[in-house]
Write a structure and sequence with these properties.
binds NADP nicotinamide-adenine-dinucleotide phosphate; 7 helices; about 240 residues
Length: about 240
């Protein structure tokens, strides 16, 4: 039986690349999105050329949505072996302009969203004695980013959550790691001025902006037995930026 991966926020960007990469390598994939049903459907259609996929709408910040998504996934595929908590939002603005609502929403999606999935999948993984959780953090969860204090706070939290959870569940056969992408060409870069992106590029040792597939390959490695002795780690994938 094929393994199953659930990738949150996989209608676009990094999540979509991860979903497609896993699908092309034989995984059944649960493609999650919040609004963009059409993009999710495109992702599913691509994966269905290789393995099997379904799309499930769910706002990860809402526990009821997450429970419904997990139920649907288990009904379709029986079990979930790998969770990639990728869904995330950011806001680039001066910190004194950041409202409490915006600050809260960023934590709700980026941090509580991960916890909602973890809390509701852990009982299954614990009873099976195996499981693999990969959280997508950011380089701004390793080093702060000017004008992204709310986002940086959320991503530092993701790195901490990952390390703590790995210690809690390691002896139950569950590995938990995070990936901190650098600057990756997705819709998330929209709204950042071309000049700013160019100056970021100049600071990258490999001299290029990352592609979503650069992250997908590392996620696949973390899900595989090639990384059997890796847990609680935050893997920075930034082309040599920080
Ligand atoms: P993106 O292109 O903006 O895509 C975001 C994805 O998340 C979409 O599939 C979106 O669904 C989904 N989503 C947003 N809010 C959601 C929610 N509440 N519930 C469920 N799904 C939700 O983002 P990206 O650049 O690929 O980023 C993916 C992850 O990598 C994020 O955690 C981000 O913080 C992290 N990251 C990105 C970069 C970068 O340079 N791009 C760098 C470091 C870290 P819809 O399509 O339905 O809106």
């Amino acid at each position: 039986m094929n393994k199953t991966a659930l990738v949150t926020g996989s209608s676009r960007g990094i999540g979509r690349a991860i979903a497609e990469y896993f699908g092309k390598n034989g995984y059944n994939v649960v493609v999650n999105y919040i609004k963009n049903a059409e993009k999710a459907r495109e992702t599913v259609d691509i994966i269905n050329g290789y393995s099997r996929a379904i799309a499930v709408q769910a706002d990860v910040s809402k526990e009821e949505d997450v429970k419904r998504m997990l139920d649907k996934a288990k009904l379709e595929f029986g079990k979930i072996d790998v969770i990639v908590n990728n869904a995330g939002i950011c806001r680039y603005e001066l910190t004194d302009m950041t409202t409490a609502d915006t600050f809260g929403r960023i934590q709700d999606v980026n941090v509580c969203g991960i916890h909602n999935v973890v809390k509701n999948i852990l009982p299954d993984m614990l009873s099976k004695g195996e499981g693999n959780i990969i959280n997508i953090a950011s380089i701004w969860g390793v080093k702060g980013s000017s004008m992204e204090a709310a986002y940086s706070a959320s991503k530092f939290a993701v790195v901490g959550y990952t390390n703590a959870l790995a210690r809690e569940v390691g002896r139950s056969g569950i590995r938990v790691n995070s990936i901190s992408p650098g600057v990756i060409a997705t819709d998330m870069l929209q709204g950042i001025e071309e000049e700013t992106i160019e100056s970021l590029r100049e600071e990258i040792a490999l001299g290029r902006i990352g592609e979503p597939e650069d992250i997908a390959k590392v996620a696949y490695f973390l899900a595989s037995d090639m990384s059997a002795y890796v847990t609680g780690q935050n893997i920075v994938v930034d082309g040599g930026f920080i």
